[in-house]
Amino acid sequence: MDSVRAQYSQVLVVDAGGFFPEQNDAIYQNPAWFMLQAMKLLGTDASGMSDKELRFGKGFLVANARSSGLQLVCANLWDKQTKKTLVAPSIIKKVGTVKVGIFGLTSDKVDMGPARDSVTVEEPTAAARRTIASLRKQGATVIVLLSQLGKVESEDLVTAVDGIDVVVVGRNVPLLQKGRMIKNTVACYGGEQGQYIGRTIVTLDAARKMATGENDTYILGPEVGEKPEILTLVKSFEDAFNEKLRQEEKKKAAAQSANPEAGEAEASVDHYMGAEVCGRCHQAEMAQYKTTSHARAWETLVEAKKDANPECITCHVVGYKQAGGFKTGDDATRLADVQCENCHGMGTQHEAFPTAARRITEATCVTCHNPSNSPTFSFAVYQPHILHKVPANMPPLPVNPNKKMMGTGGH
Amino acid sequence: MKSLATRVLAVVVMAVVSVLLLMGATAKPGTQEPNKLIILSTTDVKGKTSPCG
Hints:
By secondary structure, chain A is α/β, with parallel strands linked by helices.
């Protein structure tokens, strides 16, 4: 952002919404609050919103958005009590010599979760027409829509409604590196989870209206510099949140241990056993496995202080939350790392392996090596590195560009 | 009455401040590509601040 600001004098920073975490547990109010603060600190001029920002209720969002100072916009989300839009429908932002009108829309086809009884969602097209007219009347010469309508509905809307210069398309949208023109609107398909940033260049005419526009989306790879104050803030938050998650997990484990019947039921079904059991017979395979990155998967989480984060743990241990699998950090000595059973299956099913012919295919790997976690993953390139008979002169794996997001890390 | 050294120092300080102000004015945003509006955008960040490890 700083480098773009250094190069161009008229820069607008927006988010299309969907920035709250996906978990509903109350403890995830911590990252929700942090996102509001951090986006404001990053200089976000306006953000759209959706049901995702309402997952902790209307009161939580409104109070925390206000205290953070982050400007939310949504033109078709109405508060039943006040009969006004829940957040500002739109804003006008003066960027240099340009008056930019920014408004948001959310889908009327999704459940609003805990806020469902306190808000209503208006049909987006009507709200768009009304808001665009209002923004033009106020002198906006460029109009930007922050859409949480998804790809198809966003494209249909800008086709049906004139006057939108740029739409940032959000809500489970596939990443497109180049945006596209839909009638007279530049559509930006941003990519999710903070790993990408879209850059739309609007060329202005003498009346400060959009003459032409183009969009590209960039991955925030290691070559993108860190902003030290943001890095420090993110790291201190993440470390503290990891500890909160650890304490929460301990409480849950204590409650479960008070119910011994669950353990008895688990012992009677197929379950994970841990690599130590496999290695008693498969000594050569075990020796090779220990040279792989899989055998250091847990260590990377500990170093990143993500070893209490369930979202991360699941791909760094054996059978997370499954029968006989990893449940808490206390299981780390036996079930940490990506082990034999992650690829081959539960040890108690060992006798069935030859007849079941469990083959390790790309489908086995992509449960964890998905585009978000492992954007450089290619089965053909990665798989030879975990074969128990490693081919000679193996080239190194490509550097994973997924090392930035908002702060630090490295997957 | 101010000494010569004090007056020389004051002139030097004023000169340095002037140069710094001038440099600041040169680097100040608002002068580059006035016919372009750049929109930086993200979406669906989903509470993610960094990768796992």
